[in-house]
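note to self: the first set is below, dont mix up w the second
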Amino acid sequence: MGNHVVTIGGRVTVDTSGDMRRTLINVLRSKPVKVTVDLSRVTYIDASGLATLVEAVRVARKQNTRFTLRGIPGQTRLFEIDGGEAGA
């Protein structure tokens, strides 16, 4: 329950995206009201990292958890899930 902020840092690649996945799934397992993923410390993210974020969004949507990304250079958020609807 409640709100969780998950900070991700460094390079997110096929070699490290599994760690990010485990972290996000563990946080989502408690079915929080809101999860914010802070990407301000990420220096690089590849397709496997993006796929991990998409997977987390799908889990959040199924359980009505608001899922927000922050810290993306040049944007305040990439996507947000709130009550099962996506917005930009």
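second set (the one i keep forgetting abt)
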Amino acid sequence: MTTLADLPAVVLGPLRGRSDAEWQRRPAGKWTPAQIVEHLAIGLVWSAEKFRARRGHEPMQRRRQTPAERIAKFLILGVGWYPQGRKAPEGTVPAAGITRAGAEAHFLAGVAAWEQLAGELLPSRRSDLFVKHPRLGDLTMPEWVRFHVVHARHHARQIRERVGT
């Protein structure tokens, strides 16, 4: 089982010792490894910021899920299967010119933000604090952690394909 603490090894491990040019290698129409790392960083930082902003809220209730959200949540959070070929939600698409250093630093900051947040808010706010995911609906902190783990494993496979490991 992968945890937040494992994400740097899972995502950045295949890129360790690789040149800047390898961080920019991509198939036509696809993201570079640097862009993939930045995409993951954007999601980590955004969700951590949302939880941090809501930590003072009174206990919350989960909104009713749509059938599509229920199915996606079961597949991603339950089974651990991330669908291929989905378009990234607006705001999570990385810039074309993202550098290795920028993407790596942003990603590590996102992981650190989540580790700090978990230390501050878990277990006390485990089940009564929610942030809406664009495709899965309202998620708790543990559900967001699970999402980030599954999402990172999905993109780590793409990174490994691009660098040939």
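remember for set 2: The CA atoms of residues 44 and 80 lie 18 Å apart.
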